[in-house]
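User: Hi! I'm working on a homework problem where we have to compare a predicted structure to a textbook description. Could you give me the structure for the chain below?
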Amino acid sequence: MKLPSLDALVSAIRATLRRFPMVLLAAVVAAVAGVIATYDAVDEELWGRVVGTAALGMPFFLAVDLLAERRRWSIGPRSALWTLGTAGLVGFYLLWLDWSEPVAVGRYIQLSAGLHLLVSVAPFIGVRELQGFWEYNKSLFLRFLMAGLYSAVLFAGLAIALAAVDNLFGLEVPEETYFRLWIMIAFLFNTWFFLGGVPQDLPALEQRSDYPMGLKVFAQYVLIPIVVVYLLILTTYLGKIIVTTVWPSGWIGWLVSSVAAVGIFSLLLVHPVAERAENRWIRTYARAFYITLLPSVVMLWLATWKRIDQYGITERRYFLAVLSIWLAAIAVYYAIRRSRDIRIIPASLCVVALVTFAGPWGAYRMSEASQVRRLERLLTASEILQSGTIRQASLMPSLDDRREISSILRYLVGTHGTGAISDWFGGALATIDTVGEGTGPSPQREADERAELLAAHLGVGYIGESEARRPGAFSYAAKEGMPVPVAGFDYAWAGQGLLRDSAVIDDGLLLRYDSASVTLRLSAGEALLAEIPLRPIIDSAQAYRAQPGADARIPPAVMRVTIENDRIRLAAYVTTIRGRDTEGELVLSSLGLNLIYAMK
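Assistant: Happy to help. Predicted structure tokens:
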């Protein structure tokens, strides 16, 4: 085997640079920003966004270059698209600064998927070369795998070399160096190597007839049988739904999506050999697959519609609904027309990803609007929202409504902010929501606290996420910083985690939790001084929360038990108590207590 000379290697590197200059520039920006982020702890998040934005530029500029190359454009049109793309990336970065983490992640994945799909179809827009299209994407896929393998081996080799220098010569190599090395290899070497294998003579691909039989074996004997089995399961489940008239489970959405993805992928793998005489069964199977997929898509519609009807639109339900419509359109198209044009699959999916990225019809605006309308209906029904203004609650919403109101507030605060509902509060939102900065979204760690403040102002007993997910769960906490009467007491003691171990207070006093009776037992040696019942405290806290206008944090007096006998006088103030009460069985998971007492 003849190895390439250094001159040939340098020539290939230069040729790749001349062919894809903007792609490599984006890779350099991403690599440099990634390395800077490891040094700048203060602005690490901002530099991380630069990395992400530059990474989006790589597939966009690659699609532009391939399209321009295929159309034989001059430098003028190509430069114009480069300029527009750069402006779009700058705009994306600036908008990213105002997005919440869930919205930013969703938009990024959506745009990245759309741009990568654009790469797969850009050179073949308006060019009907179906064999060439398949060969082109096969080349990209194999080159991607090869680039990943080479990059992994190169990183492993250099990382071991650094470790050897560190251990053998005593030259300290900071841990961050390994991450910086990975960044440089991932964005520079990996990208350059991948681009070096992108096909140049695209028209020549149409004449290729070689086909790796391993793909056919994998698709025919692994993927297709799996798809058939799951389609049988889904069809049988549909029969069960018809017989029992029970709505399909929400989990069905992910199963249908997975089966559709694997099924379509398997058909794409065997596309080039589908017309051969010995493989005519492939066309029969393809048509049967799309026809059989339609009932499963109908189930997906039913499951998605049920969730939307109950709980409104969210980003996940929006995408599930849109993808189900896309699946139905693809299935009907290929079942009726028996078309061999596989470009339609990535092209249409690319359009869906880009069209739903933004705008009033997009996933994020529609989800926010749907949840605001749902919250408006709930508050209006409880007479809390009247004529577009929040009023003092005259009656406490039901437990289910409180759970939904709390969930919507938590979603809005953590995903979109409170701007859409700020007018309801008559300009007083800033004095109510003292945690958030303005009406923008908050990180998830403080979204719960902001939602709790809003619920308290609405007069709705707030139900946290953990309580909402577990039936019968409860979580109560006392207000902090409130004075309590101490006259007649000599000692004060505070404790947390009282459910696990016995707590030694002082002078031989021992506090132990008894789960059978849900009480705290205070003893001195073998003598029982007092039993502190906890169920009455839970009942009092629950009754307080059920009152209109009740605060989320409960006054200490509500969560207090006083006991006096011939040996001790005490007042127990529960600071936090969490647990679950199902079918009369009370199980605590957390308990905090302040105890003041006087011995007699």
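For your comparison, note the following. The mean pLDDT is 87. The two ends are 97 Å apart (CA to CA). Good luck with the assignment!
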